[in-house]
Specification:
By secondary structure, the chain is of the alpha/beta class. The protein has helices spanning 4-8, 55-73, 114-119, 125-139, 154-169, 177-203, 243-256, 260-274, 280-304, 309-330, 347-357, 365-372, 392-411, 425-438, 451-459, 470-478, 485-488, 502-513; strands at 22-25, 29-34, 37-42, 46-47, 50-51, 77-86, 89-92, 97-106, 207-209, 219-222, 225-228, 240-242, 336-340, 361-364, 416-419, 442-448, 491-495, 522-523. It has 3 domains: 4-107; 112-330, Aminoglycoside 3'-phosphotransferase, Chain: A, domain 2; 336-523, P-loop containing nucleotide triphosphate hydrolases (Rossmann fold, 3-Layer(aba) Sandwich), CATH 3.40.50. The strands form 5 sheets. It has a 6-stranded antiparallel sheet. Strand 4 and strand 5 form a beta hairpin.
Length: 527
């Protein structure tokens, strides 16, 4: 194998033009960029989490990598090539003695990898939200893990985290002792409740064959959309995981690149598409675990390097991700924000703007009401006072779902906007109680517009998740909904009939959420 890196940099090694030759070395692979193609060779390494120690293991891993990654990036993964030994040295895909397999891929511009796009400010929230929705769809294309079978067991998830942490806590580790102690205490404290949550989610079908390594360097923009690649091939236990584990990995990585807005956009897109708000019960632990995984990769890389600046950079990255894990473990509850206003008052539009600006995730009553009814994207006209989507029973079920989702998310340290009318003061008090119980900052975003504007908006809706009709709106207006004086101290008002300065509104919401109860109400500035 010693001659292989040099051979990969020889244009004569390839059966096609091989201009712009470049060799990339990771802790487990050599990746040769040659002309229009890229070739990924598994390095003969044995690590606590990976065994590429024999050519047969590496050959199987190549075939698995191609099959798995074609689920996301079929245009990228072309097949398995064979490096052979000939009388004139090592060659690719020619007659000769088989020497080493490699994965053959279509070459792409590395500037289109997500970490590079983030660094260049060349990607936005809309693209990340769309990726979140696609990940939700991809995750559910195959069957769930079966309880009682050897893959996807909660004890395997816990053991993987234990192995990851043990590497960073071992003697000689560069991680500070006080950080190791704090993380160890968190992992032990969370274990009983986490084991129950993982088992419940396993039984509910939330363990699937996932990507397993979904961070920013493993996402690329292909044909105009963000696409995962380079999923885990070497251990099925690391890809048969809770679907939230993939999501936590990319959200964590985006946040550590300084783009919490993109992390929230991705998470919001995934949650809206999957409806899996129960994921909040395992999300904090997964964020910690995934940060430790990234730290471990840099620790291995640092030990493989001969020293100097590259090793120092890997050490700094290792410590940065360990610090991120410690921050997630100690992160306080998220903000709990409610919208308030009748149908057509601009709540959903405004909440959508705040998702990117605060940032936050959103739980929408209109979407969850239809999800509970099994309607998906189908419309249902509901003009009767007591029936269908807007019956008292369906409304009660919808608000209970919103409450459960909100409590879980703020408990995981995630800011959440609950997008509903909240015209009933009892409902508002219920959610205020959730915030108090969690110690979460709380605010109400009051959306207003003239009655004529409300009627025009509701009458003119098309393709909107809301099925509220003019009859529903008239019943809402007849109730003369208003906030109590105490609630006004926790509210910000936005007249959506005017142009709203969303950044100023976000700042006002943050300030109101942090106010003492006797503070005065806020008003959103207009732009």
């Amino acid at each position: 194998m010693d001659a292989l890196p040099a051979a990969l940099l020889d244009a004569g090694f390839y059966p096609h033009p091989a201009d712009s030759l470049c060799l990339i070395e990771t802790h487990v692979s050599w990746i040769a960029l040659a002309g229009d193609y890229a070739y990924k060779v598994k390095r003969p390494v044995r690590l606590p989490f990976l065994d590429y120690g024999t050519v047969d293991l590496r050959r199987a891993a190549c075939a698995t990598e191609v099959a798995l990654n074609r689920r996301w990036a079929a245009e990228l993964y072309l097949g398995v090539s064979e490096i052979v030994s000939t009388g004139s040295g090592l060659r690719l895909d020619l007659a000769g003695t088989p020497f080493e397999p490699c994965v053959r891929m279509r070459r792409f511009d590395r500037a289109l990898e997500l970490d590079a796009l983030v660094a260049g400010h060349a990607v936005g929230q809309v693209e990340l939200a769309a990726l979140g929705a696609r990940v939700a769809a991809w995750q559910h294309t195959g069957p769930p893990a079966v309880v009682g079978q050897p893959l996807g067991r909660p004890e395997d998830a816990l053991a993987a985290a234990d192995r990851t942490f043990a590497m960073l806590a071992a003697p000689g580790s560069p991680v500070a002792e006080e950080t190791v102690t704090a993380l160890s205490a968190f992992l032990e404290r969370e274990r009983p409740a986490l084991a129950r949550a993982l088992a419940r989610r396993h039984a509910a079908g939330c363990v699937r064959e996932c990507h397993g390594d979904l961070h920013c360097r493993n996402v690329v923009r292909l044909s105009g959309q963000l696409t995962p690649f380079d999923g885990i091939d070497f251990d099925p236990r690391l890809r048969w995981i809770d679907v939230a584990s993939d999501v936590a990995f990319l959200a964590m990585d985006l946040e550590q690149l300084g783009r919490a807005d993109l992390a929230y956009a991705f998470l919001d897109g995934w949650l809206a598409a999957a409806g899996d708000y129960d994921a909040a019960t395992v999300l904090r632990w997964l964020l910690v675990y995934r940060a430790l995984v990234r730290a471990n990769v840099d620790l291995v890389r640092m030990r493989q390097l001969p020293g100097g600046a590259p090793a120092d950079a890997a050490l700094a990255e290792c410590r940065r991700y360990v610090a991120a894990a410690a921050t997630y473990a100690a992160r306080p509850p998220g903000r709990l924000l409610l919208t308030f206003g009748p149908s057509g008052s601009g709540k959903s539009w405004l909440a959508g703007q705040l998702v990117a600006t605060l940032p936050a995730v959103r739980v929408r009553a209109d979407v969850e009401r239809k999800r509970l009814a099994g309607l998906g994207g189908r419309a249902q006209t509901d003009s009767s006072p007591g029936g269908g989507l807007y019956s008292p029973d369906m409304t009660a079920r919808t608000y209970q779902r919103l409450a459960t989702a909100a409590a879980g998310l703020v408990g995981a340290g995630i800011d959440v906007i609950v997008d509903a009318t909240f015209l009933d003061p009892v409902r508002r008090e219920e959610f205020a109680g959730i915030a108090r119980a969690a110690g979460a900052p709380f605010a109400i975003i009051e959306c207003t517009a003239p009655d004529a504007t409300l009627r025009a908006r509701v009458a003119g809706r098309s393709g909107d998740p809301s099925e509220a009709t003019l009859a529903v709106l008239e019943r809402q207006l007849a109730g003369s909904p208003s906030l109590t004086p105490a609630e006004r101290s926790r509210s910000v008002r936005a007249d959506t009939a005017r142009s709203v300065d969303v950044r100023a509104l976000a700042a006002a919401v943050r300030a109101v959420a942090a106010r003492p109860d006797d503070a005065r109400p806020g008003v959103a500035p207009a732009s």
